[in-house]
Write a structure and sequence with these properties.
The structure is a homodimer. The first copy, chain A, is of the alpha+beta class. The first copy, chain A, is 26% helix and 32% strand. Chain A has 2 helices and 3 strands; from the N terminus they run E-H-E-H-E. Chain A starts with 6 loop residues before the first strand and ends in a 7-residue tail after the last strand. The mean pLDDT of chain A is 89. Chains A and B meet through strand 1, helix 1, strand 2, helix 2 and strand 3 of A and strand 1, helix 1, strand 2, helix 2 and strand 3 of B. Strand 2 (38-51) of chain A pairs antiparallel with strand 2 of chain B, so a sheet runs across the interface.
Chain lengths: 93, 93
C-alpha cells in the first residue's frame, strides 16, 4: 500500500487452550524439512483494514474497529484478538 | 504464552495485485454492520513460532525461519511475508 495510508491491523489467534490443528500440522512438518529448535506453532489470521482518506485515527475509529473485531473478525469464545495501528512507513516488504 | 518464551512471528499476506475474496467479503459486510470509513480489507495469515528453551535468537535461527516462511508458510508467487521477533513482554492479550 502507498505511504500515507492509515492501516489498522487486527491479529486473531485461537486462545491458548483451544486445539490448533493447522499450527500442529505445520509443527509436524518441520522435522521433514530438517528444521529443529521450534517447539510450538500457532496459526491465526491477520486483517489489514485501510481507512478512508480524511478519517482521523482517533478513539472513536479504534472503538469501531474493536467492535468489528469482536463481532465479525474474531469469535471471542475461542479466539483472542489484538487491534493495533501499523506505522505505514515501517512496513518494508 | 508465559514470559520469557521467545516467539518469532511470520505474517503472510496476499500480494497487493492478487484478488483477496476473504478480505472483500469482510469489506462487503461492513455497511450491513453500520461501519463506515474503511475502504479496504485484506486477510492474511499469522504464524507464531515458539523457540525451544536455550535456542538463542541469532541470525542462523532467523535465516531458518525465513527459509521456512518461503517454503512452507507462504507461497512466494502470490504471497508476501514478514518475519519478526515479538517482544513477549509487550504482548498484552
Amino acid at each position: 500500500m502507498s505511504a500515507g495510508v492509515t492501516r489498522v491491523v487486527v491479529d486473531v489467534m485461537l486462545k491458548p487452550e483451544i486445539l490448533d490443528p493447522q499450527g500442529q500440522a505445520v509443527l509436524n512438518a518441520l522435522p521433514r524439512l530438517g528444521v529443529s529448535g521450534i517447539v510450538g506453532v500457532r496459526q491465526g489470521k491477520r486483517f489489514e483494514l485501510e481507512l478512508a482518506d480524511g478519517v482521523a485515527l482517533d478513539g472513536a475509529v479504534l472503538a469501531r474497529v474493536e467492535h468489528l473485531a469482536s463481532t465479525l473478525l474474531a469469535n471471542p469464545v475461542i479466539e483472542d484478538y489484538v487491534v493495533r495501528v501499523e506505522d505505514a512507513s515501517a512496513a518494508g516488504a
